[in-house]
Design goal:
The chain is of the alpha/beta class and 418 residues long. The chain contains 12 helices and 16 strands. It has 2 domains: 4-194 and 332-415, Aminopeptidase (3-Layer(aba) Sandwich); 218-330, Alpha-Beta Plaits. The strands form 4 sheets. Strands 1-2-6-3-7-15 form a 6-stranded mixed sheet, with helices on both faces.
Length: 418
């Protein structure tokens, strides 16, 4: 019987057999339009089926979160009992906002070592890297234990209730011992946690009068602005994060901020308040009788939703005529940055891309939070996004090939740990 090191070396040496398929698979997925809204992923699910249909070892299941939202679960069983590793990604994309601004085909085009297209970075190229890893693991399934499962969600852009959350609630194989998300990011920065969030609407009521008789009115806009001013004070809320989190953010800054923007480290450790929309009043010479604003509050590790929500509701209660409706809330989540799956992923990133990755929190929300909330240790390792959500979105093809190798190798290592 060959030694384990030789089996692993053979597995790694064989990666080149299908590696060149990855850009073509990504391009086939980019060609399937599944923009949100409506987020119809039925054609995309068919395309994924075609890309793995020639591999009988990949068990393929469809799970409908809604009539137009198809979620996929793909499962490969190893040669002996063991753990389950999950790869996760989403099939829906941002809308194509202005096709006239694109200088390449939004349906997918390779040029100068780049793969362009709507959803190329968020996150159809990441899905292609997962499919490559599944195919390679299926071909070598007698050399590893347990099983590897890929969950492809049809709903992520609208927060995942009909996508990954639906699968976690209903699909038997959607949970595992660890999860790797291929959402937009970078193999140079492994994202181990995300901030929490509160979405709310403020509604103010007043009494209209002519502006010349302001003393007879009661301005809803003034009330609304007063509460908004109180909410903005939350930006100075004291955060007491675990030492492991603050240390990781500090150590990651030199690599992470050039990719994600200067100031990322401060944002990751602060409560942020964004007033997204505001409207009110009828005419400039009338005291407003109604006003409304929406807010997005992001909550770092070391702060709870309950703490922030209590302050919000207290500020609202102190201003007569103002009400608050909280539409969405979720707590910050994190996996210890030295968790086994992150260690293995970091080792393979170092081997494949030639430099050790840093470990950091993620500024944006992803389905990774849903897995962590379900008790599954989770890390995000995706492709570096360029022009994400805008014209000429693209990924680097060399990095795409590297991520495919990283996924396959990390799965092999995780599933061979005894």
């Amino acid at each position: 019987m060959p030694k384990a090191t030789n089996v692993r070396e053979a597995f790694a040496a064989d990666l080149g057999r299908e590696r060149d398929m990855i850009p073509a698979m990504a391009k086939a997925l980019i060609a399937c339009r599944c923009e949100t809204p409506l987020g119809d992923t039925r054609a995309m699910a068919d395309a994924v089926d075609r890309l793995v249909g020639d591999v009988p070892e990949i068990e393929f299941e469809r799970h409908a979160g809604a009539p137009h939202i198809v979620n996929l679960v793909m499962r490969v069983r190893g040669g002996r009992p063991g753990r389950r590793l999950i790869f996760n990604g989403h099939m829906d994309t941002f809308p194509l906002v202005d096709a006239t601004r694109w200088t390449v085909d939004p349906a997918g085009e390779e040029r100068d070592g780049r793969l362009y297209g709507l959803g190329s970075s968020d996150m159809k190229s990441g899905l292609a890297a997962i499919l490559f890893a599944l195919r390679h693991l299926a071909r070598h399934r007698e050399t590893w234990a347990g099983e590897v499962v890929a969950t492809f969600a049809g709903d992520e852009e609208t927060m995942g209730e009909m996508g990954s959350q639906f699968l976690l609630d209903t699909a038997p194989h959607a949970r595992g011992h660890a999860m790797i998300s291929a959402d937009a990011g970078s193999p140079r920065v492994l994202r181990f946690g995300e901030k929490g969030m509160i979405w709310l609407t403020l509604q103010a009521r007043g009494r209209s009068s002519h502006a010349a008789h302001v003393h007879r009115g009661d301005s809803a806009i003034d009330k609304l602005l007063a509460v908004i001013g109180e909410l903005q004070k939350l930006r100075h809320f004291t955060v007491n994060a675990p030492a492991a989190v603050t240390a990781a953010i500090a150590e990651a800054a030199a690599i992470s901020e050039p990719l994600s923007g200067a100031g990322e480290s401060d944002v990751l450790q602060s409560v942020t308040v964004t007033i997204g929309t505001i409207k009110g009043g009828r005419l400039r010479n009338l005291v407003s009788d109604a006003a409304e604003a929406t807010a997005d509050i992001r909550i770092p590790i070391g702060v709870t939703v309950g703490e922030i929500e209590a302050l919000v509701l207290g500020a609202v209660a102190a201003h007569e005529g103002v009400e608050c409706v909280i539409e969405r809330r979720f707590e910050p989540t994190w996996t210890p940055p030295d968790h086994e799956v992150i260690e293995l992923l970091a080792r393979n990133c170092t081997k494949v891309i030639g430099a050790p990755p840093v470990r950091n929190m993620r500024v944006g929300a992803s389905d990774a939070r849903l897995y962590r909330r379900a008790g599954v240790p989770t890390v995000v390792c995706g492709l570096t996004p360029y022009n994400m959500g805008g014209a000429d979105e693209y990924v680097d093809i060399g990095e795409l090939l590297a991520v495919g190798d990283i996924f396959a190798l990390t799965a092999f290592d995780f599933l061979n740990v005894t």
